[in-house]
Amino acid sequence: MAYKGLTGFIDELAKRDELRKIKEYVNPELEITEITDRITKSGGKALLFENTGTAFPLLINAYGSDKRMSLALGRESLDDVGNEIENLLARLSDTRSKKIAALPSLIRLAGIMPSRSRRRGACQKVIHNNPDTGILPVLKCWPYDGGRFITLPVVNTVHPETGKTNAGMYRMQILDKNTTAMHWQRHKTGAGHYEAWKSRGGRMPVSVVLGGDPVYAYSATAPLPDGVDEYILAGFLRKKRVKLVKCITNELYVPEDADIVLEGYVDTSEDLVWEGPFGDHTGFYSLADWYPKFHVTCITHSENAFYPATIVGIPPHEDAWLAKATEKIFLSPVKMALQPEIEDFHMPEAGVAHNLVIVKIRKSYPGQGIKVLNSLFGAGQMMFSKYLIVVSGQTDIRKYDRLAVHVFENTDFIRDLMFCQGPLDVLDHSSDAFSFGGKLGIDATIKHPEENSGSGKKTTQAAMIPENSENLLTNSGFIEKFNIRLFGSAIPAVIVAVNRFGDHDVIEKVKTLFRNHDADGIFRLILVVDHTVDPFNLHMVAWQILGNSDPRRDHEYLNYSSLMIDGTAKIFRKGGFPRKWPNVVCSDTTTISAIDRKWDSLGFGPFIESPSELYSNLHISGKDEVIKD
């Protein structure tokens, strides 16, 4: 199903009772974020803020459920689009009667290639030749953000030599009325285009699309190979080719049905600008850094345009459902292009896409799990994965309690853990070096006889908690809180919370405690978190462990292949930390109180407490700074 701009999608959301309209004025600075954070985390509807102080209503949380994500892709279920892609690839790869079998699919594929027109489009109904980004309800999302950010832009660029186009999603910080920073991370295609233009010299044309068919925003986030046109994927998803029209002030082409377009350029000879901090999808503030400046030469928009936005922060947010769509859409291409034995893969919310990936394979020979790990750590955007677990058998990789039991039953911590190092997402704050650090691959597949020669220890049934262990942990003098309840689910793990801020030696004390008092290695996994973390909130624990650890640096083998992972903030470790350490992303008390007071007038029904109240204890105290040196 193809939508005609955001208007068509909004109408569909309203028809499906998936939209709530807010008529009262809500400030785009901090207040919209606080409301959206409450609604998203409580499973609420898409939000249309009709009074933003500008001429443009703001749509947010449009992708924030399985149902709405499916509707955005024009389907009733995400499984539908995954099945369509699998069927298409199967037809195209049929070697028995390739030409005959592939012909109908090739004809349909030709019908989704984007078309170009030099005529004006609906997105150019209104033209602002003296552009001012102040006409848009751009959000300041979190208290310590560096400014207001455009958060759902589809940034269109072209390579100066090859002519290959790219439509990527890169946040944009407003600098003044007609310039923004352009957050092109070093691994992204947009950054590659920028470097190519810089080598050539001169101005690089850039056009930014806001709104239009919601498949455009998804396609811009999709892990497509370099050089593959995102609007081909969009055409496939919407079952209708994307009609592109030429921009007014540069030579780029953009979707005819876009709501808003910012046209302009980046001067490659110009100095970079300071961008950030920004409350990011990792749940931490991403660090400020130097990025190119985008000059806006023209703003165009449709007659009744809507401004699309999203927020990110402590998961889950809308990006979690974008990741779910990627799991369904790209499973078949991953199987075909990388590893045919892959049956499924999953990126848990707490892993914020790149910190944890679970892969399920159809195993037929020894060593296959290790083979898949080696392949995936070097494959496309999988190269950013920090923790990667491969399983086999009938385990449901989205049922975490059963998955954990499977991992312990089929993993020898000495034999089956593969530590390495490589590229990391630039937003990873835990590694000693920027965008480079440790990784851990875990082969938790069911082992063949040839693989069962390890010297470590596995768990095949619920272990008995060591006698007096609760008293031992309680009376340690340095463990402030702990959770050993996982033993009741056949998971031999303990979570301990310590105050590293006040005792730089506390990690060594934890190691000594378990070496001396767990001689049999009953606690196979010891997870260490900061004293501000609730050890019984497993989502919080997983998010903190995955975000705050470098697997290679922060693991320690204890007795009988027991493994300890240090997931505490490293800023207070002995010897310090070589980089700045970011704070967690939370609303401030002033904003929370303001929304508390106006909640009844917003029409949301029963009061929903701010999620920031739950996570505010994780904020590193001291001066109210974004980054603690």
Structural overview:
With about 625 residues, the protein is α+β, with helices and mostly antiparallel strands. α4 (about 80-90) runs parallel beside α9 (about 320-330) and α4 runs parallel beside α10. It folds into 3 domains: about 5-75 and about 110-310, Roll (Pnp Oxidase, Chain A); about 320-450, 3-Layer(aba) Sandwich (UbiD C-terminal domain-like); about 470-580, 3-Layer(aba) Sandwich (UbiD C-terminal domain-like). α14 links the parallel β27 and β28 (about 525-530). The two termini are about 50 Å apart. Residues about 625-629 have low confidence and may be disordered. The relative contact order is 0.11.
Q: Gyration radius, to the nearest Å?
A: 25 Å
Which CATH architecture of the largest domain would you pick? Roll
Q: Please identify the top-level CATH class of the largest domain.
A: Mainly Beta
How would a crystallographer describe the biggest sheet?
A: 9 strands, antiparallel
